[in-house]
Amino acid sequence: AEAGLSAPAYGTAADEAQTARIADGIGYPVLVRPSYVLGGRGMEIVYSREQLRDYFARRRSEGGGTSGRSAPLLIDRFLDTAARHPQAAAISTGDGRVMTYHELAACARAVAQSLVAAGAGVGDLAAVMLPRGPEQIVAALGVMVAGMAYVPISQSQPQQRVTAIISSPRLRFLLTDDPSPDHWAQAGVAAISLDEALAGDQGVSLPVVGPEDSAYVIYTSGTTGTPKGVEMSHGAVWNTIEAVSRRIGLCPQDAVLGVSAFDFDLSVYDAFGTFCAGGTLVTIPESARRDADYW
After folding, report:
1. For 59-81, what is each residue's pLDDT tens digit?
2. Residue 158, beta-bridge partner list
3. Which residues are within 8 A (CB) of 281 and not within 5 positions of it... i.e. 6 or more apart?
4. Which segments of the chain are extended strands (E)?
5. What is the DSSP letter of 272?
6. Which of 71, 89, 218, 246 is most buried, judging by how many CB atoms fall within 10 Å of its CB?
7. Tens-place pLDDT, residues 186-228
């Protein structure tokens, strides 16, 4: 990559969200560690993380992102929805529980405060290993509000895969319903129960998060070798959410059934696409995920 950074020569210029591969008219964000990819049809331009940070900082100082406007942040959109419609239903469960946007935002902030108080910093990773349902969502939002990227891990994953994932040097924390401190300490991560994290720490200031900061890391199946983490930035995630929501016309009156497993990337739109539109995410228990009659 060249030292100077400019928009792709053709195709759709990346927003400050920085990454887009154009296919059939929809932008699919792609991030390839340790470099990002900017591109359009028939081309890819690869830049280092440092070049992108410098470029976006320069564009912000000039009054906008690469498209002349600031890139939205996933968490900012969610918190804005919570501020405008605090009593609207954010999550509805199969057993009749309802969590409002106000309640969800308060829980997310509390988790974020606990993580920051425990020493978490922007760019760190935190694994989320919780039962399917609202708890997963609360934990993931809290991790992102703390400036970290969440790493979803299914509780049904083989221990060998779990060990491989949490061995990442950037993964410092684990939010779980079974902290077992000694077990996780041997793996090099600080385990925090979600109940403990929800206590929060009102004296902690939360960090400023930028569009180039990572939102989540989802690991590949590893069928061809060691599982590899695919890391997505806040801006890149917003590119996809905004494009899909615009095409399907998602609105606050809609309810979305969250069928996708949390460690599968479609779950990102199920939950956070719904929240950004002000709709209601309907969650199902793990036992019913393959039971269409239950849905």
Report:
1. 455 444 433 335 568 888 899 99
2. none
3. 90, 91, 92, 137, 255, 256, 258, 270, 271, 274, 275
4. 21-23, 26-28, 31-32, 35-40, 43-48, 89-93, 98-100, 125-129, 149-152, 171-176, 190-193, 214-219, 229-233, 255-258, 280-283
5. I
6. 71
7. 777 889 999 999 998 878 889 989 888 999 998 877 666 677 8
